[in-house]
Amino acid sequence: MPKPRCQQISLSDTPYYHCISRCVRRAFLCGEDSVTGKSFEHRRGWIEERLLFLGGVFAIDICAYAIMSNHLHVVLHVNESQAESWSTQEVIQHWHQLHQGTHFTRQFEQGESLSEFETTLVNASAETYRARLQDISWLMRELNEPIARQANAEDNCSGRFWEGRFKSQALLDETALAACMAYVDLNPLRAGLSSTPEDSKFTSIRQRAKAAQQHRQPKRLYPFTGNPRQNRPEGLAFKLTDYLELIDLTGRIVRPDKKGAIDISLQPILQRLHISSASWLDIITSFSAQSKGLVGSHASLVQYDNRHHCRRHHRGGYQPSA
């Protein structure tokens, strides 16, 4: 029986989550229908643009994404402190980019004078919106519902376009985060849709590679801010250059005829993440099979279970090297 979403997402344990949505229709989310020959490739653009737009509206950062033929992957960072720092005005402005809000919230945004009772209603609405704007379920809803409506209109039909529930996996530590981002970014490469990561259309790695060529980072993706250190800016605790190199090397290693260089090539970043090269290759190549709903080191998984009073034996977690 599926767990309630509130039990799968616990910000006290981690702000990072890997989410997957799958299409239920034979006609595919994107790509080409093998029966009719009709192409739906343009729908990838719909999803990418909507996802990146939502990253600018919600207090949820986009770390990685890959839009495949019948499903999509996205790695998210819930920025709770950002949501709490927003003023009532900012919260309402963000929400009104998605919905009309109430009559009173629209008056408030326009600077009209309100009575004490009306102001109380506006503040209550703003707190509801603030909670939604840091809720992964709301982000996935705002992503999937408009795409489903567009696809149904294009196909001249009605009914479900997506599976009823998106799947989510908690990423409990930096190694799980790096492994999951690499897993997501390399999806098109493994599926034979591209020959190199930077040529993988509608992926975060393509966005990052293109921006890196201009010596910058994509504005609509959660940035890399370097190794953990005091006063480090908010962002992913890796160097962008290390991550791009990691993606390229891991992509070569996954190929059956290119496994020999893993120990030498990946030594710098794996030493920093305290994980052996053998464990890294294992978690990359079988991520979906072993990750279940939680991903992390054995110690991270045990700590999570102790906090939530769970009893289980984790056989699928990776074991960091000493």
Largest sheet: 5 strands, mixed
What fraction of the residues are assigned to beta strands by DSSP?
5-15%
Structural class: alpha+beta
Number of helices: 16
Roughly what percent helix? Answer: 40-55%
Total strand segments: 5
Quaternary structure annotation = single chain
Globally, the shape reads globular
Gap from first CA to last CA: 37 Å
Series of H and E elements: HEHEEHHHHHEHHHHHHHHEH
Strand arrangement in the largest pleated sheet: 2-3-1-4-5
| Uncertain ranges | 257-275, 318-322
| Average pLDDT figure | 78
Integer-rounded radius of gyration: 21 Å
Question: Would you kindly provide a written description of the structure presented here, covering whatever features stand out?
Answer:
The protein has 322 residues and is α+β, with helices and mostly antiparallel strands. The chain is built from 16 helices and five strands. It has helices at residues 5-8, 43-57, 80-85, 88-95, 103-109, 116-132, 136-155, 174-185, 187-190, 204-213, 240-254, 262-265, 267-273, 277-285, 287-290, 298-308, and strands at residues 16-22, 60-67, 71-78, 167-171, 294-295. The protein has a five-stranded mixed β-sheet with strand order 2-3-1-4-5, sandwiched between helices. The protein is globular and about 65 Å long.
Would you spell out the secondary-structure blueprint of this structure?
Elements: H1 5-8, E1 16-22, H2 43-57, E2 60-67, E3 71-78, H3 80-85, H4 88-95, H5 103-109, H6 116-132, H7 136-155, E4 167-171, H8 174-185, H9 187-190, H10 204-213, H11 240-254, H12 262-265, H13 267-273, H14 277-285, H15 287-290, E5 294-295, H16 298-308
Parallel strand pairs: 4-5
Antiparallel strand pairs: 1-3, 1-4, 2-3
Helix pairs in contact: 2-7, 4-6, 8-14, 10-11
